[in-house]
Amino acid sequence: MNKEVEILVIGAGPAGLSAAIEAAKYGAEVLVVDENNKPGGQLFKQIHKFFGSRRHKAGVRGVDIGTELLEEVEKLGVEVMLNTVAYGFYPNGEGVALAVNGEEGLIVHPKKIIMATGAGENPLAFPGWTLPGVVGAGAIQTMINVHRVSVGKRVLMIGSGNVGLIVTYQLLQAGIDVAGIVEAAPQLGGYGVHAGKVRRAGVPLYVGHTVIEAVPNEDMSGVKGAIIAEVDNKFQPIPGTEQFVECDVIGIAVGLTPDIALPSMADVTLINAGRLGSQVPMHDRNMETTKEGIYVAGDSSGVEEASSAIEEGKLAGIAAAEALGKIDAETAKEAKDNVWSSLDQLRTGPFGAGRHDAKEQIIEQMEEWKVKNSAC
Predict the structure, then answer these.
(1) I want to staple 155 with a disulfide (CB 3.0 to 4.6 A). Which of 249, 259, 266, 347 is the partner?
(2) Residue 62 in contact with residue 44, Cβ under 8 Å?
(3) Which residue segments constitute the domains of the chain, with CATH numbers given?
(4) How far apart are CA 362 and CA 300, in angstroms?
């Protein structure tokens, strides 16, 4: 079966929904597809309030932001297909193959494509890491915040970035004991506002430490604790500093990697994203990749916070609508300038500056690529 659409958005997280809303505002026909049975992506796991400025939804919980986006999508008449996997591109731009409810057979022929495929959790390999009870922080968040299921009685968190800190605090809110946070660096890695919460809650902080192994329980059905140790200035365990920490769950929060499987299939040019994580599609200030008419937004273009994903989705939606002739150049420029102003605000400060530089480097290399290829 074939389906024609002006804009196909792949991914119904904060970036994808924002892209769809922005494009639909200007009259574009938009189809959003997502492999999950609920739209909203990470927002519905985020029960904490955003901080920053009012422009960036300060004081609003992620779940409420997700609800607002879904209401706007519905109001604008955007079609959303869930349990739908975009699994391949036909050559020469002939279409995108979708599997709906596990069945193949739908080919979508979009004029523009916005890929907002998100990111996946990084694993951490150590003896016992495949045991039941060793769980990614994102999975923990899904269980306690979405499904209201306890992951265990006592959790040891590995990693102190924003995800590790936020999920640690949410475990405490769910009434689950936290055995501590293990961080190899000499200080916590996330924002002070999140670190302050876990400090005030009295969570033990093992900075300058690493996990050596997960200790299984007697029947190997789970874990009964972990052995951790101090590390030297090369992050190698220091013999004799090992200690046992009792826990029945070990949470892993050691970063995210952009999901570039689908962009890779689309044969866009990939580039190292530096601190934004691994390889990402090269893109310009409109979020357009090296393949004309294919855009990228959110964590798949470089891992940042949900606020940045929302703004990048807006950019891609505006640019796609402009390319379709739904919006004139002057109006589009004003809209995109407003979004870039918001993004620049998000990428300020000691943590944001590095992300700003990494993103600007990607855009600069895209401009060099355009010059090089226009000369060919």
Answers:
(1) 249
(2) yes
(3) 2-120+256-374 (3.50.50.60), 123-252 (3.50.50.60)
(4) 13
pLDDT band at residue 130 using 50, 70 and 90 as cut-offs: very high
What's the whole-model pTM score? Answer: 0.90
Radius of gyration of the chain, Cα coordinates, nearest whole angstrom: 22
As a whole number of angstroms, the distance between CA 24 and CA 225 comes to 51
DSSP label at 80? E
The structure tokens listed for 38 are: 């609920």
Q: What distance in Å separates the CA atoms of residue 303 and residue 300, rounded to the nearest whole number? A: 7
Q: Average the pLDDT over 268-288 and give the result.
A: 91
As a whole number, the mean pLDDT across the chain is 90
The DSSP H or E segment spanning 162 is helix 162-173
Name the token pair of 374: 């226009």
- Mean predicted confidence (pLDDT) in 9-21: 94
- CA-CA distance, 42 to 139, in Å (whole number)? 11
Instruction: Compute the distance between CA of residue 304 and CA of residue 120 in angstroms, rounded to an integer.
Output: 13
Cβ pair 40, 64 in contact under 8 A: no
Nearest-CA neighbor of 174 among 214, 134, 142? Answer: 142
Q: Which amino acid, residue 269?
A: T
